[in-house]
Design brief:
The complex is a heteropentamer, with one copy of chain A (326 residues), two copies of chain B (286 residues) and two copies of chain D (275 residues).
Chain A: H1 5-9, E1 23-29, H2 33-39, E2 49-55, H3 58-66, E3 72-75, H4 79-85, E4 91-97, E5 104-107, E6 123-126, H5 131-142, E7 151-154, H6 157-165, E8 171-174, H7 178-185, E9 189-193, E10 201-206, H8 208-212, H9 214-236, H10 238-249, H11 253-262, E11 268-270, H12 274-289
Parallel strand pairs in A: 1-2, 1-3, 6-7, 6-8
Antiparallel strand pairs in A: 3-10, 4-10, 4-11, 5-8, 5-9
Chain B: E1 22-24, H1 28-31, H2 37-57, H3 69-81, H4 84-116, H5 118-131, H6 136-147, H7 151-175, H8 179-187, H9 192-226, H10 235-244, H11 248-276
Chain D: E1 42-51, E2 54-64, E3 69-74, H1 80-87, E4 95-101, E5 104-107, H2 119-124, H3 133-142, H4 158-170, E6 176-180, H5 188-205, E7 208-212, H6 216-222, E8 225-230, E9 233-239, H7 251-263
Helix pairs in contact in D: 3-4
Classes of the chains: A alpha/beta (326), B mainly alpha (286), D alpha/beta (275).
The structure holds adenosine-5'-triphosphate (2 copies) and magnesium ion (MG) (2 copies).
One magnesium ion is lined by residues 80-81, 109, 180 of chain E.
Chain lengths: 326, 286, 286, 275, 275
Amino acid sequence: GGSSAADDSSGSSNTSGGLGSVTLNVGDQKGGSETILRAAGELEKVPYKIKWSTFTSGPPLLEAVNARAVDIGGVGNTPPVFAAGAHSKVTVVGASHGSSAGEVIAVPKGSDLTSVADLKGKSVAVAQGSSAHFQLVASLAKAGLKLTDVKVSYLQPADALAAFSRGRVDSWAIWDPYTSQILRNTGARVLTTGDGVVNGLSFQVAAPAALADKNKSQAIGDYLGRLRRAQDWAFKHPEEWAKVWSKETGLPYAVALDAVKRSSGTRVAVAVDDAAIASEQKIADTFADLRLIPNHFTFKDFVDQRFNTGLPASNTPARTFGKASS
Amino acid sequence: MTISKPPPDISVIPDQGDVLELEPIISAASRRRHVPRWLRRTAGPLLLLALWQVLSSTGVLEPDILASPGTIARAGKELIADGTLPSAMLVSLQRVALGLVFGVLAGTALALVSGLSRLGEDLVDASVQMLRTVPWVGLIPLFIIWLGIGEAPKIALISLGVAFHLYLNVYAGIRGVDEQLIEAGTSLGLSRWGLVRHVVLPGALPGAMTGLRYSLATAWLALVFSEQINADDGIGFVMNQAREFFRTDVIVVCLVVYAFLGLTADIVVRTLERLLLQWRPTFTGK
Amino acid sequence: MTISKPPPDISVIPDQGDVLELEPIISAASRRRHVPRWLRRTAGPLLLLALWQVLSSTGVLEPDILASPGTIARAGKELIADGTLPSAMLVSLQRVALGLVFGVLAGTALALVSGLSRLGEDLVDASVQMLRTVPWVGLIPLFIIWLGIGEAPKIALISLGVAFHLYLNVYAGIRGVDEQLIEAGTSLGLSRWGLVRHVVLPGALPGAMTGLRYSLATAWLALVFSEQINADDGIGFVMNQAREFFRTDVIVVCLVVYAFLGLTADIVVRTLERLLLQWRPTFTGK
Amino acid sequence: MATDLHRQVIRPAGQKTDRKPDRPGTGTGTGTGTGTGAGTAVRVEGLTRAFDGRAVIDRLDLDIRPGEFTALLGRSGCGKSTLLRVLAGLDREVEGSVLVPRRRAVAFQSPRLMPWKPVWRNVLLGLPGHPDRAVAEQALEEVGLGHRSGAWPKTLSGGEAQRASLARALVREPDLLLLDEPFGALDALTRITAQRLVAELWQRRGCAVLLVTHDVDEALLLADRALVMENGVIAHDNPVALPRPRDPGDPRFAELRSRLLDQLGVDNHPAAQAA
Amino acid sequence: MATDLHRQVIRPAGQKTDRKPDRPGTGTGTGTGTGTGAGTAVRVEGLTRAFDGRAVIDRLDLDIRPGEFTALLGRSGCGKSTLLRVLAGLDREVEGSVLVPRRRAVAFQSPRLMPWKPVWRNVLLGLPGHPDRAVAEQALEEVGLGHRSGAWPKTLSGGEAQRASLARALVREPDLLLLDEPFGALDALTRITAQRLVAELWQRRGCAVLLVTHDVDEALLLADRALVMENGVIAHDNPVALPRPRDPGDPRFAELRSRLLDQLGVDNHPAAQAA
Ligand SMILES: Nc1ncnc2c1ncn2[C@@H]1O[C@H](COP(=O)(O)OP(=O)(O)OP(=O)(O)O)[C@@H](O)[C@H]1O
Ligand SMILES: Nc1ncnc2c1ncn2[C@@H]1O[C@H](COP(=O)(O)OP(=O)(O)OP(=O)(O)O)[C@@H](O)[C@H]1O
Ligand SMILES: [Mg+2]
Ligand SMILES: [Mg+2]
């Protein structure tokens, strides 16, 4: 539940308080929060110290949150489900909603598959436990198929690319920026996107211990505000953001710009409301049915809604860079 | 072997002015501990286990730092009951066995080539020394491109790990063979192959055993990576999956299984050593 | 060394009925190749490189399977020019150095304990044999819980890999020391520590060298995993990141750097061996 | 063959050379130069050592008095080296009781030099204090190895290694010197030098010496007692009560030689005998 | 000490024992039993072997005729083993020309048994065909090691190992037999047996033998020629033209012994001499 601290959290960043002595340990991924905040100028005049830690992907970041080595960090929509399923000490405190156009099931150039239903009996590469994993299950379900109707090849993205580009697998469930990369470089074709199938959410996950600390909780509130403003900046300056991002990650600029326009630039900060929780609960139940999570559990137990104030509902449509950009 | 009489007392010698101070040579039989070997060898691991349990039950080791042996045992029992672990082990065992065979053959062959001839050394050794440092993980995409996503890349990865280990130790073993024995073999009219078979290989055997010991471990380690490639069974897969899904208890069960495998490998190699190196009267500690 | 006269012709001996067939002992000087050692040793790697380039330029090796050496060189030059590689190397070198120091100390100490005393062996060896099989990767979550996400878990991972390698080879080395020399040392009145220092350790040195050789490689390998934990610099991080973002050229550059590190490690150990093992007249191939 | 070996080695007066197998308390020997003539230096009672059930040493008794030079002969494989190893305290898989002095030095049958130490370091190994290289050099000079003191052991010739091993034992100044065929690989001249060296040390320190040898003349030239080992026990114990310096031409010497050869099983009928 | 060694070893009549250093074509030796008496078995010309710049063998010349039994004596470290290794074809870091028969057998100064093979397998190692264990057992029986044929080499006593090594060389039936102090660690009786064994093989096969020994009597009892090595060359070459069986009591024997000891630098004035 909310607390009095939540009141100032939505306020501006110039609150004095005892924040000067606070150090916020933020977990990050390469080209993630730190990059966007810096590019948007949101790392100037921060009334507390931020200590960045970089992780290769969501799961190890949440491991660190669970170990109290990190206070807060941003991840996709499935890692919190698994972390919660394992009863890790993590709490979802913020969310953003983006376009699901980047989450696709792709087929290589020259493939004769045209619909998800055609996948029956074919092989699909997917990273286990990723958002694409859920998307695959959901997409198949929508086409009236079960996971067992296809040959699932569990491959990490780098390995999957090798397999996909050599035609060792018939299709690949993948997300951005990988989507933009293969679409641009290998002439792959999209079979289906995640639109209407996945929730397009990503989360800020904090350690309960940090939330219990009054000062830290205040800092987290401020930090979430900065992230929201940075996202707005990115939407307004896609080229600039793509340039920074590509430099940071080594992605080609064209690919980065594609990815920004297709997904990462479309994000809008939203409340972790009941709709969001329900959509995550659906993911949790799906994986529990697949026995990838040992037990059914209530996702709401791992959510703290104190920072929701003033944020739009989670089903607020993502921004688009269509004709009506700006 | 028992002592027929106790070691005599030095005081039997009457104390004269210029008597040499003598010391008794104490028979080993009187000092021998009578705890059987296997029991003493299990003491270490058991002690570790006991420590773990004690720390857990006294609350020094909190469950979220490391679950107690009891919890792990329950998780393990579950994994066994639902068939996950047995079937994973079976699949992995096959992969490891195949990988070991190829790896041992390749490693030994390479070691022979570069151990036996200068030319071989110049060509092979530098290349192997260069390649063995290359991390497997980086090679996985290449392996997929070359060998697909079936069993081949998995077994290739395991073989690679095994081969390098064995290579290094067998090569060092060959280079450590006493030159005097090589000379003796030559002078006895052994052919080049006879020399290899009767002198060089037996001489390199202790080194090879060390290599084998680590190779067995490496094979299981490589499995963790090889079962990242399109696997849906196997102990490495179970562990990778547990990592993705934050199942710390399953991870620890896997680690325990690995530890158990390590012990088994150790027993296998020890038995082999007892059989093959019985000619070696070496230092065995005091 | 040159031959003063050519080996005599057997036909000098007049053909009588019962003459023994003689063979000349051909001086090694007349058979010696005059290619310097370092050149011959670089031949292997250079050959590999040439093969790679040829396959690439003839199109047998397509660029998306493995980029050509030229492409890789360009990518490498870029990484060096923008400072990524040098700074990564520097950071990694520090981690590896620290990890090596701790690992070497721990591994050697453990090996001494279990190599020198039966009791130590019973307690330590079984536990180590059990633990060394445990895959690092599985330990990462535990390490994060125990040691946080700073430098500690990274260095601990490296140390662990190094320590087990060294343990195994030093232990085998100690157990391979000739009992006769131990006896001689004892009879010379060496204390227990003197025995260790003057007999056991030098005798175990060849084994330790093999262990060290692999340890150096292992240290760099462990880096790849340890730099998955909260790193934003280091060669392992660069490689992990390249993997995340499909920079195949960067991956291959990293692999090449690793190969280069392997060669460097090899040169270091070879130099050490030349210095420390010069007393050993062993088989050096023909 | 052995010539004026004892040119400079004259035992001090009062040195007892006859056997004293009785209890040490009853010993009557007067002290040698260093005053350890009384008591006993080695006492072995009922010593048994078996390999794989075969008793190589079988309830052996042996007493050696301080300052006594004892030669041990016997067929190859009869257990001489095994006995030496027990006396050196290196083999404890034994039954029976053994008492030996604390300060012992051994020269093994094979040289057993540490291959990783140059010769001079091998010589100094285990000596208390930090003796100078000069100490080793001098000892090596005495065995004629001064020029090889910096060499690696594996580059030594057979005789050179044996001499290095001997030098290593001799610099230790022990109370009990155990020598296992220390001159076996030496030529006649070098052997005489080495024998003289051992004799000198023995005279100076008054230490007990147990010398395993196959050379009957050598035993008779050097020792106060010549033991013959057989079937795991000391089968024959011959006091050598000849005045020093000894002369192989002496008829008593020849008689003793003949007796020893007989005990060793050599069919030495007078015709083939060299005296 | 050596007694009726040649009890059964009688060299065939016509055996030349005087030195023939001239070109083989001019040799006049008639054949021995196996008919290899003509020509040459070993020819060494201008052989030089240096270690670290020190020439241990320095322009050495040596011819050995087939069927000739040659003894090689010399100070410890003078290069005897080095010469043997060259003749065995094991050391090729040499200058000069060396011709040797294809079939050679060596008994090294140290036994060099493969520690990983039981004694009998060591004996058979490298023999063509797949000889039976019985072959090895018989050879071992002859050197008195029948009971140890299944033992690991490291459990052998010094003399046993030396005998095993000798047996290993003898079963090879070579044209050139190179023996490096093969009897050094043997007691008197065992030594006589082993000497007789070598003599028998030599007589039967008519092979050339080069025996390194430090025992002057041994050299004179067995050899046709006694060489003394010094300063890297064969400094003295003594034909031993004594009838066999030889008697150490023979005045010609004593004279030769005296000459050899003199060449070896032993100060053997008549008083100390045993004849
Ligand atoms: N590898 C080597 N390096 C340097 N010097 C060596 C080497 N091998 C032998 N020598 C030296 O060469 C000399 C001759 O050695 P060799 O073994 O031939 O002597 P030897 O006549 O057989 O002596 P011994 O009777 O003591 O066996 C010795 O001084 C020895 O130290
Ligand atoms: N470790 C062992 N295992 C089995 N038998 C052994 C072992 N060590 C020695 N022997 C045997 O014990 C016997 C005595 O050996 P020892 O070395 O004492 O003989 P020795 O009298 O010194 O003979 P030599 O004069 O040949 O050196 C030999 O028959 C030997 O084979
Ligand atoms: Mg012996
Ligand atoms: Mg020699």
